[in-house]
Design a protein that fits this description.
With about 350 residues, this protein is an alpha/beta fold. It has helices at about 5-35, 50-65, 85-100, 130-135, 160-170, 225-235, 250-255, 275-290, 305-310, 325-330; strands at about 45-50, 70-75, 80-85, 105-115, 120-125, 175-180, 185-190, 215-220, 240-245, 265-270, 295-300, 315-320. The strands form two sheets. Strands 1, 2, 3, 4, 5, 6 and 7 form a seven-stranded mixed sheet that branches. The longest helix has about 30 residues, at about 5-35. The N and C termini lie far apart (about 45 Å). About 30% of the residues are buried.
């Protein structure tokens, strides 16, 4: 139409889009910090090989490195370490992102060095380097090296603050060695393989796709009509039978007071009449006379709320919820017969 051909309208729309993206990035980073500060992140440690992790990160960051004509190297590494692979991956992703951002020529290496009592995972770059003064401050919120204009394209200055909190949660040491013009080495010290914690195969979980849960019943509770309907349509597309309601009482009517037992409950945390998703789940559990896997979705950053959610025993996802994370929850439901 006419607006699509108007350069000024396109410019304004682009600015609005960029502003929304910037606010989204900031919100997600601040949410990560709030969740970590509230102690609401659960740690799940196990033995895992660095081979798969290094290959995954290498494949992910190679295109970014190639765009800057940088070489990214990661060696085959069969070393087995003990820790939370997901949180360690987040730390290394931040290290690699910064290495590419602050390196204009040369190479970046992802490697593991065996220490006396631990393994040391390192990201080494040939970038601009960091002065001694800055090294003491880079883990503080909003501190950035070489970005006095606060250009969002160069990051928000929150990544290393999140890294520091995550490492503290894991009980792992992080450090940096660098000199101006001489590149940087960021290190994460992790535990060697723990032979008393051999990984066990998951029991009674569904296959990697969702076909085996086709037609299983999922109860969705959200008092926001647009969100409720959107989630309902997504779950139907994935093959689930969905009951979408504004509260627990309505849900119980729709499932005949527990005569139809849901395979899962997905509820927003804040509901009308000062009720919470925790209240709704408890009500449905009582009526169904059993434990049903439940997922709480929330945008709250209050420490009290996050603490309550952590202690609830239910899985929690923070808004905006990525479909991949929702699928991960559904994939790990106990196997149930079709409804």
């Amino acid at each position: 139409d006419e607006t699509e051909r108007d350069p000024e309208t396109q410019r304004i729309a682009s600015q609005i889009h960029n502003s929304v993206d910037a606010l989204q990035m900031l919100f997600e980073a601040l949410l990560d910090i709030s969740v970590l500060d509230a102690g609401a992140v659960e740690v799940h440690k196990s033995n895992f090989s660095l081979n798969t992790l290094f290959a995954k990160l290498g494949d992910e960051f190679s295109p970014q490195a190639q765009q800057k004509n940088l070489e990214l190297h990661w060696a085959e590494n069969g070393t087995t370490v003990y820790g939370d692979s997901n949180l360690i991956e987040q730390i290394l992703r931040n290290f690699l992102s910064n290495a590419i951002r602050y390196t204009d020529a040369g190479e970046i290496k992802l490697r593991c060095v065996t220490g006396q009592d631990s393994e040391i995972i390192q990201v080494v770059d040939t970038g601009i380097g960091i002065s001694k003064a800055d090294q003491a401050a880079i883990f503080e919120e909003f501190h950035q090296v070489g970005n006095p204009e606060r250009d969002r394209q160069n990051g928000l200055g929150l990544g290393l603050s999140i890294v520091q909190r995550t490492a503290k949660l894991l009980g792992h040491e992080i450090s940096v060695m660098s000199e101006v013009g001489g590149g940087s080495t960021f290190s994460l010290v992790v535990d060697k393989e723990n032979f008393q914690h051999r990984a066990k195969e998951p029991q009674n979980v569904i296959e990697s796709d969702l076909k085996s849960q086709a037609n299983s019943l999922v109860v969705v509770i959200d008092d926001d009509e647009a969100i409720r309907n959107g989630l309902q349509q997504l779950l139907i597309l994935w093959g689930f039978d969905v009951v979408a309601c504004t509260n627990a009482d309505e849900a119980l009517q729709r499932i005949d007071n527990g005569a139809r037992v849901p395979a899962a409950i997905i509820s927003d945390y804040r509901l009308h009449n000062n009720l919470s998703g925790l209240d709704a789940i408890t009500t449905i559990h009582s009526a169904c006379d059993g434990h049903i896997p439940a997922l709480i979705v929330t945008g709250d950053t209050s420490k009290d709320v996050l603490f309550d959610l952590k202690n609830s025993g239910f899985q929690v996802l923070h808004k905006p919820v990525a479909p991949a994370k929702l699928r991960a929850f559904l994939r790990n439901l106990p196997r149930t017969p079709a409804v």
